[in-house]
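It is worth pausing here to work through a concrete case rather than discussing structure prediction in the abstract. The textbook approach is simple: state the sequence, then state the predicted structure, then interpret. We follow exactly that order.
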Amino acid sequence: MAAAPPLYEQLRRQDRGRFLTALFAPQPARDELIALYAFAAEIARVPYLVKEPGLGAIRLQWWRDGLDGVAAGMPPQHPVLEALGQAQRRKPWRFDLLRCALDARERELDPTPLANLAACESHAREAAATVVLAALDRLGTERSADIEVGQAVGIAVGLAELAGGRLAPPLAVEAAARSRELTAEARARRSEISRRSLPALLAARLTEARRDRRPDGLLAARLIWANWTGRY
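Step two, the predicted structure:
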């Protein structure tokens, strides 16, 4: 599979952190992670692009229908869906994970605030951990330890995003603290992790910048170091 350079550039603009982590994956998984993360970035934008929940639901339904086309071998003419379709020919996607992420983004259209930390963690599991688990699947990871750590990393990333944006204090503080706790727990299991899983688990290095909603000028260097040492 040869992902088009424009899709790389699109992801770099929309989610530089995930873009950089994907570059550490070998081919063909690298192109597939670019496609996956571009999909995740597209659906994450929807709640912020619309003023009416109904319009957001229509956009997300378009993506659901697009996934159905990918699964059927007939992706719509859209660069992200076409790239997902190319990857589908090599190995089927975990569509349960991709659809779960879509459902989570649709729930973001509801203006009702998340009630407590448990609700935040549930949302992070569905919106963000699904993406990490899908990435691990493309990397060929089947070990239970890698999947458990991937789940923790994904929830940590999702909580960091919530703490940096949607939540008001004190819940934002709780979510940030839980994100740090999960990241520490994931890192404590580093010796159990397969090297092939590392490109997906490097997402743990994105949590601080997402919590603080600030660019990390040293992120590329931090990721190079993390990949070299295995210290996600």
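Step three, interpretation. The mean pLDDT is 95. The radius of gyration is 17 Å.
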